[in-house]
Specification:
It contains seven helices and three strands. The protein is mainly alpha-helical. It has a three-stranded antiparallel β-sheet. The two termini are about 55 Å apart.
């Protein structure tokens, strides 16, 4: 079951527009003869059938939308995890570097360091540079992901706005059509005498 707030988020439209849409399409939503919208303590609840019918009437494809959002969320989560792992490795490398320098400082006769200690120091520096490069790359990937997310949110908001405008135009056209139907019905009720005298 979903309430009106859930459907507002689902379609990205205002409460007034959604309420008007449901009001105008209530017969189509309950097209099987059953009432699929229940009011409990002034809150409207829509069962799965009602949501499915509203999706169809609005041309909403939830499976595609949810799949795209899930894929994007998974990608962002992977990037954040990778970034966290790189930060952890960089901290470990920094600790190793500090330990190496400490051992170098404590070693008697610093200028007479063995080739092995010198090699260890060089390896520590090399690993640190590699870790810093990976961290920089992860930061760039994270920034790109954030930018892509912002663009997606902007496009989604624009699509929701256009959909709401289209719905408003449809409702206006429907209202004009109802007025014309009423005028036509009134005209058909006139007798031939009324028509003759223009009444």
């Amino acid at each position: 079951m979903r309430n009106l707030e859930d459907l507002m988020k689902r379609y990205g439209i205002a409460k007034s527009s959604l309420s008007e849409f449901i009001k105008n399409h209530i017969a189509e939503i309950n097209n099987d003869g059953q009432n699929h919208i229940v009011t409990d303590r002034k809150v409207k609840w829509f069962d799965d059938y009602a949501v499915q019918r509203i999706d169809e009437l609005r041309g909403y494809n939830s499976n595609v939308t949810l799949a795209a959002e899930a894929a994007k969320a998974d990608r962002e989560r992977e990037l954040l995890e990778e970034n966290s792992q790189l930060k952890t490795r960089l901290l470990l490398m920094a600790e190793e570097k500090a330990q190496v320098y400490k051992e170098l400082a404590e070693y008697k006769g610093y200028k007479l360091l063995s080739g092995e200690m010198q090699k260890l120091a060089e390896e520590a520096k090399s690993e640190q540079k590699a870790a810093e490069a990976r961290l920089k790359q992860a930061a760039e990937i994270e920034a790109a992901a954030c930018q892509e997310r912002q663009q997606y949110d902007t496009e989604r908001a624009e699509a929701a706005r256009r959909l709401e405008e289209a719905a408003a135009r449809y409702e206006k056209a429907a209202e004009i059509n109802r007025l014309l139907q009423d005028q036509l019905a009134a005209e058909r009720k006139k007798t031939w005498l009324d028509k003759l005298f223009g009444r």
